[in-house]
Amino acid sequence: PTVIFSHPPIGTIGISEDEAKQQYGEDDIQVYQSSFVNSFYGVRDPNGPPKPKTYMKLICVKSENEKIVGLHMIGMGCDEMLQGFGVAIKMGATKADFDSCVAIHPTSS
Questions:
Q1: Which one is catalytic: 105, 106, 107, 109?
Q2: pLDDT tens readout for residues 20-58
Q3: What is the pTM for the complete model shown?
Q4: Residue 65 needs a FRET pair 20 to 30 A away by CA distance; which of 54, 58, 59, 88 works?
Q5: Phi, psi at residue 57, to the nearest 5°?
Q6: 54 φ, ψ to 5°?
Q7: Catalytic annotation on 7?
């Protein structure tokens, strides 16, 4: 795993979407993307300035039960979350494994 301790932090593990397409073929890759406002900003004035978002991308191999081969994220808390994701991905986690868990991180769950 790699983290850039910037503002906002950036975290990445595994291969990029382009690398996955080259390695496994474009038809065998499934990419999931999500963006959301962290819970940390939930109490902000809704009429105030825009709330910062966190962006996440999960890259999976369809033919291997959607095994996760890449995870990339930017936003508050990504630096702290990456370690847990890193362990899971190194152990061969699949998208279904991630779907069966509830995140406990207080700012980006």
A1: 105
A2: 999 999 999 999 999 988 877 777 777 888 888 899 999
A3: 0.86
A4: 54
A5: -135, 130
A6: -110, 140
A7: no
